[in-house]
Write a structure and sequence with these properties.
This protein starts with a helix and ends in an 11-residue tail after the last helix. A two-stranded antiparallel sheet has the order 1-2. It is mostly helical. Helix content is 68%, strand content 3%. It has one domain. The longest helix has 28 residues.
């Protein structure tokens, strides 16, 4: 939490020095449209994130069960961790720096932000497998592109945070994939020995991410551009 407070302080300083503005440029003020968009995009991201596990249960016959040591405190801590980590990343990649870059170079700033977002996530998987690095960069960079586009269109972090949070909470808190360890559901072991075709495996791997990117991008494009940036 201290890191986020430092980010906010530095963000305020940057925007004040650059144009004597304040953190309102991040669109924190809740409005009817922002709250509606938050709920809609959070739900879409969560649904597509969950679809990966549903497909694995259907095609690869994976099974999940409630964590036997589940507690309210465990889930609350997991959700809080995700809120902090999402806010931290959004303030870096879709925060004041992106706002300033958009003012200076326009929509091209979104591409720079997306490249940085994709490269940043390399550190979560290591640098051993070059092919894996390329695929991961393309997927996370594409997600960064959609999140940056959302900020560009809405002049607010509500939609980027909603998509980012919806995806991560399902992965990490619901299905226990990630740094938090066992959360709500844990996989039933041993895994069943099921032969899955390359096409099925490819579909399971790509459908959730590609689906959420396409649906969110289409919806974002149709959001009324109610900010000071030039519409696309």
């Amino acid at each position: 939490m201290i890191g986020i407070l430092v980010q906010l302080a530095l963000s305020w300083l940057l925007v004040w020095l650059s144009e004597r503005n304040n953190l309102s440029v991040l669109g924190w003020k809740p409005t009817k449209f922002r709250l509606q968009h938050f709920v809609i995009f959070l739900s879409i991201a969560a649904a597509f994130s969950a679809s990966a596990f549903v497909l694995n249960m259907w095609i690869a016959e994976q099974r999940w069960q409630l964590n036997p040591v589940l507690s309210a405190n465990l889930i609350a801590a997991g959700i809080w961790f995700n809120i902090k980590s999402v806010l931290f990343e959004e303030l870096i990649f879709r925060g004041v720096l992106l706002y300033i870059l958009i003012k200076k170079i326009g929509i091209k700033a979104i591409w720079l932000s997306a490249i940085a977002f994709g490269a940043f996530h390399w550190f979560t998987i290591g640098f051993d497998n070059v092919v894996q690095l390329i695929i991961f960069f393309l997927l996370t960079g594409s997600m960064g592109l959609v999140l940056g586009y959302a900020y560009f269109k809405t002049k607010s972090l509500y939609v980027p945070v909603a998509i980012h949070l919806g995806w991560n909470v399902i992965q990490q808190v619901v299905f226990s994939i990630g740094p938090l360890g066992k959360q709500l559901l844990v996989e039933v072991l041993p895994q069943p020995e099921v032969t899955v075709s390359y096409l099925s495996a490819f579909f399971i791997f790509l459908f959730p991410m590609v689906g959420v990117l396409l649906v969110c991008a289409i919806l974002i494009r149709n959001i009324k551009c109610y900010n000071n940036h030039s519409p696309v």
